[in-house]
Amino acid sequence: LRLRSDSASKRDHAVIGFLFACYRPRYFWFELMSLLRRFLIALILTLLEPSDPLQQLLFLFLMLTFLGLHYFLRPYSHRKENVLELLSSCTLILVYAITVAVGHNNTSAGGQASWSSVVAVVAAWALASLLLAAYLFLI
């Protein structure tokens, strides 16, 4: 069994180091968790019908599981990156919930988009932006 040389290790770090450089050293593997989350989201959203309650349940379970995991581990080296990841996950959950509500509203109203749905999406986006700005720049 031969140990790797320091030069090989430095070369590997130079080639793939960007994948884990933003994480704390003991959470170098967390990029794989992010990829797994994205893959599972894509799988759930493409294989199940949007009106299927199972899609909604699985999506929310998946997002809340990864949100909790990220909250407790805080894998990024910098506090702001952890906060941004948490806020982006919350925003994704909010946007999905609004999309489901709008889709339900549109199918019950004969497929016509309502202004209340548009206002709800804009209000949610504005609220998320304000919370992010307040948290990152005022505190």
Rg from alpha-carbon coordinates? 20 Å
**Helix-and-strand structural type:** mainly alpha
List the secondary-structure elements in sequence, H or E.
HHHHH
- Residue ranges: pLDDT <50 for 5 or more in a row? none
Q: What amount of the residues lies in strands?
A: under 5%
Write the SSE topology.
Blueprint: H1 6-16, H2 30-47, H3 53-73, H4 79-108, H5 115-138
Helix pairs in contact: 2-3, 3-4, 4-5
What does this structure look like?
This protein has helices at 6-16, 30-47, 53-73, 79-108, 115-138. Helix 2 (30-47) runs antiparallel to helix 3 (53-73), helix 3 packs antiparallel against helix 4 and helix 4 runs antiparallel to helix 5 (115-138). The radius of gyration is 20 Å and the shape is globular. By secondary structure, the chain is an all-alpha fold. Helices cover 75% and strands 0% of the residues.
Question: How would you describe this structure in keywords?
Answer:
single chain; 139 residues; mainly alpha; 0% strand
